[in-house]
Structure formats: C-alpha cells, structure tokens
C-alpha cells in the first residue's frame, strides 16, 4: 500500500487491519511512536495524518492509503518544539514526549495556555505535571 | 576536552542541558519494546483467575507447535523472588495466594498465536482474606515509643480521635513493565525497564543457581518508575529468562496496560487511627497512632514501607509522648509494593487531616496550630532523633501561607463552594535507619579518551540522574559539564550503587561520586583529564558510602536517627466543589519545598510539579476498584490519572536550607512532593464544611461525608 511517510512516498506491505502503530514500529522501523495503552487514552502513539493529530493505536493501516503520515522522526530532531521541550524540561522519562510533540504541532506558534491545555488533553504525562510541557509548547 | 586552564563555569545550580534530552525529543531513545533481536520470541504469562486456592489441573488447550512452555519445574535454582522474605514464587506450584499470580509461561514467534493460546486451569477454591483488619497474618508489626503515652494523655485538656483511610494507587508509568532475556555463551543477559539492576541480578542468581558473572542485567531507557519498577522487574526478568533458556532464543515480555494494572504492585491501602491529647492552646501532649496497611499476598517490601510510614506518622510536630503501632497485613490480593513516598503519604495524610480536625475542635486557626507545634531545630522526633539546623518546618509553613495569600483567600472563600487548605510535611532522605550503612553502596569514575565516565547502577527513570550526577562530578573535578558523561547501568560494567529508590540518588550516590571526583582530582595532580590520559592512559576511581559520623540507629527498638536528613514542605490547595455532582476540582496548588540545594532547578521543579500532580490524582480521582481481590477497572478509561484539564496551576517555590551530608547540601526530592497534596486538598474540602477523612475523594466518598455530616449534631455548616 502506498502512502506518504515523513515526506517520502513509501510502499508498505502489511495487513490492512493491522494497527498503524504496529506498522510504523515494526514494518517501518520507526520506534519513536510509543504505545502506552493501546486504547486511545494516553496519546503516546500520536502521529499526524494529513496534519491532524490522531492515535496510531486506533487507526487501521488501511486508513492511511494515499494519506500523509508524519511521525516524530519526520521532525528531524531540531524542530523548535523539540528544542523547547529539551530546554524547558518538557521531557523527563521521555516516553510521552514524541506523542506530546506531535499533538502540539497543530497548535501552531506561541499558542495560548488554554489552547495548549485543551490541545494536549488527550496526552497523558505521569512525570511532569504538565507545567514544563506548557512552558515548552508556549515558547516554541 | 579543553586543555585550557580557564575555570569552567560551575554546573551545579544551573539549568545545564539534560544529558538525555536530544534523544528523547527526537524519539530516538530506545525503550525495551523498541528493541528486537534475531530469532526473538514473545512471552506471555498465564495467571490465576481466583484469589485463593490450589491448582488442581492445568491443560494446554491449543496446538503446541512452535510454542515453548515453562512452569515451576523448569526453575533450576530456587523458586522464590529473593528480596526481604523468600516467600513469593516466580511461578505458583500448587498454592494460589492472589488473582493474577503467575502459573505458566508461553513463548511463540507470533504474538497473535500466543494471545490466542488457551490454557485451562482447574482450582480447588478456598475463601480469600480480603479485609486487612480481619486477616490473621501480619507480615510485620512494629512499635515506636517516645515518653510515656499515659502521662501525655493526663496532661491533656482534650482528647481527639479519628480514623483516616487511603486507597490503592496504581503507578501508571506510561511505559509498561517489560524485559528481554537473551541467552548467550552459557550465560544470560536481561535488558529491561527497571529501577534496580542489581535487585534483578540478585533474584536471577538465586532462581538460576548461577554464579554472578553468568548473569548480566542492563537497564534500557525507562519510561517512568515511581517505585513500580523497583521490585517487580525481578519477576518478569525471571519469567523471560526461563523461557529464553528453554527456547535457547531471545524472549521479550512486555505487558499490555491491562496486565500491568492487574498484576503489578500498587501503593498500600492504609487505615490510620489517631488519638491525640492537646492543651486548649493547641499544644500536643500525646499522640497515639495505629496503622494498618494492606500488604497483599506476599511480603515484598511491605516491612520497609510500614517502617517509613510509621516513622513519619506523627508528622513534623513536637510532642513528648508518642506511641505508634503498625501492622502490615496479608490479604489475598496482588502484593502491594514500592510507590513514591513509600508509606509516608498514607500516614502523613492521616496526621495532617487529623491536625485540621484538632484545629476545628479547638477553634484555633489551622496555621496557628501548626506554628505552635512544628518542629524546630533541637526538637526530638518520635524515634528520639534530635533535629539540626536543616529543619525548616516553620519556614516552609510561613512562606507557603504568605505566597498563597492564605488568609485573604480563606476570607474570600468563606461561605462559598470554594475552599483552601494546607498540609505541612517532611520526608526522610535515603534508606531508613541503618539501611545505607548496610547497603555500602559504591560508585566509580572512569577517565577515558572521551572524558570522565560515570559508573553507577543508579538508573535514569526521568528524574534526571544522568544530568545531576554529571553536574556534581564536573564541579568537583573542575572540568566542563560536557566532558562528563553517563553510561547505561549494566551489572557487568558498573559497581552496585544500591537501588534507585528512597530519594537517595542525588543525596547518597551523588555524594559518593563527589568523593570519587575529589580523589580523581588529587590523582590528576594538576593535569587536565586529557593531559593525564595522554600521559598515563585510563584510570578508574571507586569510592564507597561512608555513613555520616554521629548517626545512630537501633533497628530492634526503633530508636535513633531514622534518616541523616529530612526535606520539608508545605502545600496549599485551593479547590471548588460542584454542588450537583460532588466533584472536587483543584484550582491551584502552592508548593514550598526545602530540598537543601537544587543541583538543577528545572529538574527539581519537574520533580515537585510531577509529584504534586500524582498526589492530586491520589487525592481525588485515582480509584482502584477491587472485586474479589482483583482490580476491576484495569484500563486507563476507568482508572484515570490527571490530564492537562485536571491538573491545576502548580506554583513551586524551592527553598535551600542545606543538609550537612548531601552534595552541596542537597536533600532528597523525589518522594517529598507526593506526601502533601492529598491532605492539603482534603483540608481545603473540609474548610467548605465537609467532614472528609478518606481518599480518593471521588464524588461518592464526598457525598457520603456530606450525608454523614448532616446527621451529626456537631456538623458544621454545609453550604450545598
Ligand atoms: S497507545 Fe494509543 S492512545 Fe495510548
Ligand atoms: S515525561 Fe514521563 S510520562 Fe511524560
């Protein structure tokens, strides 16, 4: 099946009902997308499909046919959000971080606190109490 | 490395870049589930579905082609997870003591086939013990006595009694537990998410009956621990090892969320009863405290959890006559274990809500009551420890009251559905009593071509171990922070610096590293590390923990210096209650924490903010529903932790009153923040007029408190 993954066209052969999360991690070798619950509750698996943040654990692979999928690896490591997370202590254990950053991407530059809290409401972090994450997202 | 003699700016006290940020924000850090080995199988654990009984028969009701199956008969050494008591088996033989007890292990290449494999287990059922108070078995009982309790009561004007209850709490590290076992050249390597590689090493040695060097344990990047990866990984590692050795192939066991919640340890539920003598002016004359903790089915760490709970049970208050009795009771529920705070959140919840009730009964302002009784330097704790100048109870209390505008808000909220409350609390740093001396932890520094390498078993679990250790070493050596680098804890490569628990990683292990660095500096004899390396090659310096002099502790009487220092804090909580749903919404928390010295202020604030959020969840929403000894809500949909919308602004103030022992005066910070939010929040709810004494204060519990209050003649005004 053909789709766009981190700005490159790819052809991946996997069962159409396989979770996108597993296809990314196992077939594509992109392990930056994490599994925290497998039930759409934690947001650790957040990726972008055509610019919208979704939980990759809830999306069957068939659904990304011809779509654009962006994972944390697609940001290259030096994206302003990534730098801000590093500087502000937004990543402690780091397991929620890729998902947080992907969920924060559609919020745009310097979003309001309210917009950040609402935009990240589907992403759990057990380490930070979110304060450092807000500081990071609002700065980027 | 720079050969220049220009002094590098000091790293300690500055927010230098975390050593692990770049990899974590890039998604490049490798957690256990990100690793794959050639020929690797997946492992699955077949568990009991009853809380108590005996296994009558097991039947493998699936096509066994391609499967590896292991049970207790495959254990070459001892079938016990070696920890405090040797009571918990890796795999049940006949007896079942709790639901989700591991019985059988399966491995297969295909996860789908593995999940579909059906195993039938027949049982002879027995009646489970589910109520800790009616359990006939105490895993541990202890007593702390100071003064003569009856003398204290006879000095009192009033005696106030109360019972306080706290529930289970699930860790919800976002990365579930997982281990990979790789058999190699007559030995085995375990890679996994864990806090204590040497605990796993010890448990595997005894399970396999092997010598040290055949077992290698490597910590992989760990997605949160909070105590939940202190003792439990030993069990999973044992299971993965058994399957891997039988298959002679690598085996990965990673729990899904439901299994992690049903099977792994939780915070001990507790019932704490207080009977307190007070003078009319609020001075405490006698504190009689009884603690019952629900240990679950095996001992695990319950004796030490109880011990820390009991030592903190009288709160940060001066009182000449104290009696504490504690029991950790066996029940037929999955074993409870280590969780950030380790017994202290339960007992300090009780004492802080009790103090509030004393203030209410006497008609004294809650701040005034605490000011009257708070420990000062020179005061004596319940174990007879004389506190030094590093005691900041009064200081943090006063700062928190000022910072939060406590008085103004108290007036503003009066008669509304909003309330404000506070909690004053403390937390001993490091292992209790003689624990640190017994551990005799070691740490090493290696001089290499790349710079200075930190060799410790202390794990990075998000709290910033790698960064904070490097700061301490860089400054003690006088080298740039960037020249000091951490290595992944690997039992074949690092000395045993003890477990990563008990808020000890900075204060204790950091101090040992500082000693190593000081010695290395002497040996460098004025050369830079690079010059020394060029001239003499590599060097390794190892140092061992030296107990601070003058510290005395007697384990048999519970008398003496329980901890070499304490960290002190005061939390103020503001809440709002919904009069229709009885939901309590936190509006703001103000947290004033004295942690001695903030080696890295951003990391410290991160510990306080994160611990506070976890404490808010403990107070209000995190409810483990147990049915027939099994967690009935083992999903993140119905066991919820605070999201961005449930977490209020957290205003953190760091106070630095140095200890004599920690590096740069540092005290422990990891656990302190979880002791305060629950009592502060419940006291805020109390200020609205609701006689709440139990957590988690979910709407049903709040409603019950309101209904009970209505029937009482001494009930205060309930504006709902
Ligand atoms: S793993 Fe997808 S939401 Fe938790
Ligand atoms: S940093 Fe650990 S869960 Fe967010």
Q: What portion of residues of chain A belong to β-strands? A: 5-15%
Q: Biggest β-sheet of chain B, characterized?
A: 7 strands, mixed
N-to-C CA distance of chain A: 35 Å
Task: Give the second-level CATH assignment, the architecture of the domain at 34-127 and 172-263 in chain B.
Answer: 2-Layer Sandwich
Count every beta strand of chain A, where a strand is a DSSP E run of 2 or more residues.
5
Biggest interface: chains and residue counts? A-B, 53 and 57 residues
User: Quaternary arrangement of the chains shown?
Assistant: heterodimer
Number of helices of chain A: 5
Query: What is the name of the CATH class of the largest domain in chain A?
Result: Alpha Beta
Largest sheet of chain A: 5 strands, mixed
CATH H level, superfamily name of the domain at 34-127 and 172-263 in chain B: Aldehyde oxidase/xanthine dehydrogenase, molybdopterin binding domain
Topology, pairings included?
The complex is a heterodimer of chains A (140) and B (720).
Chain A: E1 2-5, E2 8-11, H1 20-27, E3 46-49, E4 52-55, E5 68-70, H2 80-88, H3 97-104, H4 113-119, H5 131-139
Chain B: H1 21-26, E1 41-47, E2 53-60, E3 68-70, E4 95-96, E5 102-108, H2 111-116, E6 119-125, E7 138-146, H3 149-155, E8 158-166, E9 178-184, E10 187-192, H4 197-208, E11 215-219, H5 232-247, E12 251-254, H6 257-263, E13 270-278, E14 284-296, H7 302-311, E15 322-330, H8 344-362, H9 366-373, H10 393-404, H11 406-413, E16 418-428, H12 435-439, E17 442-447, E18 452-455, H13 465-477, E19 484-486, H14 505-524, H15 529-536, E20 539-544, E21 553-554, E22 559-560, E23 566-577, E24 584-594, H16 601-620, E25 626-627, E26 630-631, E27 650-655, H17 672-675, H18 677-687, E28 694-695, H19 699-711
Parallel strand pairs in B: 1-12, 8-28, 10-11, 14-15, 18-19, 24-27
Antiparallel strand pairs in B: 1-5, 2-4, 2-6, 3-5, 7-15, 8-13, 9-10, 9-12, 13-14, 16-23, 17-18, 17-20, 21-22, 23-24, 25-26
Helix pairs in contact in B: 4-5, 7-8, 8-18, 13-14, 16-18
The structure holds FE2/S2 (inorganic) cluster (FES) (2 copies).
Residues 35-38, 40-45, 55, 57 of chain A line the site of one FE2/S2 (inorganic) cluster (FES).
